[in-house]
Amino acid sequence: MMLVAAITSLAASCTGSGGDSSLTQAATTGQVSATSTPSLSPAPPETPKNPGQASMLGTYRVKYNTVHSTISNSDVHQVSKWTTSPNCANGPCNTLIESSKDWKARATFLKGHYRWSRTLKKYYYCEIGSTKTDIDATGEYAIRPTAMRLVDDVWVVTRFTGSAEFRGHKSGGCIPLPEERVIIQGRMKLAPAA
Question: What is the pTM of this model?
Answer without folding.
Answer: 0.72
